[in-house]
Amino acid sequence: MSIMSYNGGAVVAMTGDKCVAIASDLRFGRELQTISCDFPKVFEMNPHLWVGLPGLATDLQTVKQKLEFRKNMYELKEGRQMKPKTFANMVSNMLYERRFGPFFVEPIVAGLDPVTFEPYVCGMDLIGCINHPEDFICGGTPEEQLLGMCETLWEPNMSPDDLFESISQALLNAFDRDGISGWGAIVHIIEKDKVTTRTLKTRMD
């Protein structure tokens, strides 16, 4: 078993019309043993910027703390909120610094530009190679299933409600086909004036 799938987990981000969604499952496990069902993998960096960290749970917590520190230092120095693209490059740079002994996480960044409110999503591998699609990005153990579901359900310029429905159905149906992710899900819909967070009930078997 790969170290990336030791704890399981799924994260997906999707773009809409002046809105973006990011969602993750809630399972924390050790290989096939489930330990808890309240372990989200998506974190708020600022109101328009969220990051998902699928991969090894210990590295997830370390990387989250390092990212919060670097983001706070940037905002203190610059006196403005960090843009999603800037944040993604910072994450990539941090991971590449550790390329010979990497953090076993594959971050997914989702956010809105603070000025234009254009949606931005990107993902990277464990040494920080950025993949910046226009539509959606997936990570975690059911990545292939998520890609298939997102290809089917994503449409351009979706409203926040349609986006919530699409990302939820994609995530639920993908991790139902994966034994080490699922057990609940959490979805964040990021708009220019608010963030809506919903917790989903899912199969627990």
Descriptive keywords:
4 helices, globular, alpha+beta, single chain, five-stranded antiparallel sheet, 205 residues
Structural commentary:
With 205 residues, this protein is α+β, with helices and mostly antiparallel strands. It is built from 4 helices and 12 strands; from the N terminus they run E-E-E-E-E-E-H-H-E-E-E-E-H-H-E-E. It has helices at 57-78, 84-97, 143-153, 160-175; strands spanning 10-15, 20-25, 28-30, 33-36, 42-46, 49-52, 108-112, 119-124, 130-131, 136-140, 185-190, 195-200. It has a 5-stranded antiparallel beta sheet, covered by helices on one side. Strands 5-6-7-8-9 form a 5-stranded antiparallel beta sheet, with helices on one face. It has a two-stranded antiparallel ribbon with strand order 3-4. Strand 1 (10-15) and strand 2 form a beta hairpin. Helix 3 (143-153) packs antiparallel against helix 4.
